Amino acid sequence: MNVTRRTFLEMAxxxxxxxxxxATGTRKPPRRPNIIFMLGDDHRxxxxxxxxxxxxxxPHLDLMASEGxxxxxxxxxxxxxxxxxxxxxxxxxxxxxxxxxxxxxxTQEQLRLTYFNLIRESGYHTGFVGKFGVGKxxxxxxFDVWEGFPGQGNYFPKGEPGPHLTHIMRDQANHFLRTAPAxxxxxxxxxxxxxxxxxxxxxQYLPSEDTLPLYAQTRIPPPIGAGSEDxxxxxxxxxxxxxxxxxxxxxxxxxxxQDSMKGYYRLVSGIDSAIxxxxxxLAKQGLADNTIIIYSADHGIFNGEHxxxxxxxxxxxxxRIPLIIYDPRLPAPVRGARQQETTxxxxxxxxxxxxxxxxxxxxxxxxxxxxxxxxxxxxxxQVFFVEHDFPFHGFIPSSGAIRTDGWKYIRYTDVAAPFEExxxxxxxxxxxxxxxxxxxxxxxxxxxxxxxxxxKKSFLNPNRSPWRDPVTNAELKRxxxx
Length: 482
Hints:
Blueprint: H1 5-24, E1 34-40, H2 59-67, E2 69-71, E3 74-75, H3 81-90, H4 94-97, H5 108-113, H6 115-121, E4 125-131, E5 145-149, H7 165-179, E6 186-191, H8 236-239, H9 242-250, H10 254-284, E7 291-297, E8 302-303, E9 309-310, H11 316-319, E10 323-326, E11 337-339, E12 343-344, H12 348-355, E13 383-388, E14 399-404, E15 407-412, E16 419-424, H13 442-458, H14 473-478
Parallel strand pairs: 1-6, 1-7, 2-11, 3-12, 4-5, 4-6
Antiparallel strand pairs: 2-10, 7-10, 8-9, 13-14, 14-15, 15-16
Helix pairs in contact: 7-10
């Protein structure tokens, strides 16, 4: 069944109306849906059971995917938390919103245009729980209920053995659901710290006590992507960067690798358990039939691939992230769908507004994903831009990239000599074989170089829309980079 966005919304509204009529014996116009938007930190796309991972235990995320829609090609445009979260809040690339470090806060005009402020102004009761992640100034007054915190946060804010931060956030979210006013729809944003490391702790990953038995007898296999020796093909500036230092304290020995991966998986399972508790509260409060739940992440992470830890570069492990949308009003043919269209973190902004019935402002650069729900759309995104221009040069070398469905070009912009990567993703999905120096692929290299330059320049011209693909799919095919 090919369900267009308009048909989907009409069917969802009819389903919601029918549910109300069935429950009350009367027919009322459906109220706008409640929305819960949950965000993991460093949660890469392949660390869910529903994504094919046979080790990690994520039963509640898997259930959400089976009852909703799993987007299998969802990406972030800047793989670092502060920048990606700003892109989600504003629906813009970093070159547009200008937030490129941990200290820069949203301006008052940017705050006015955030998804949470526009949705609140439209009549929603709003709350925020967890890691805000953008700047030092916390926008407490932009929410009806504020349980957010600045910076990285601490997994044990009251000291070990607990309570654990994921449990604290779970309880705060459940309290919000139990006390939300019945006369208004609500928007609850939940931004987990998990599964991010505790940067100032030598143990790195600090899961909750109840998850410690998980994976205790499991051996986590080595990364299936490029191995640690792959670091040797990169320039010294990258070999000596923060990615490599963090690899040394997480993955340098087999024992470290096992400890780190089990801790990472336990933190993901902790999020999953919290989601189960939140869904249970929705059911007990009679809210489940009209509450949309979205789960995504700010970016992925290297778990040893290429000899890296952390994120920051434009390889798949770093930029490919989960996106699950569960809407109880979904028509039956759509449930369990796996969408292949390319979607981006900045698409969440117009999607959230779309769900609340709000037209996005013109400064928005994303696209609502609702049109893809259950539909094999032929007008999806064909190419996108990745940028990472962290201001502390040498700590994390700056880079940018162009990705199409089949090819990726990466350029490092502040190394001693320009370093480039070119990958044929259909033949080399783990990005093991850099084709940038192979003369057989000179045409693809030059083509993607030109697209990179076109995209960079488009941000400098206020009369050009950089979020509109600078090339068409037909042109991508003509140039052999589709």
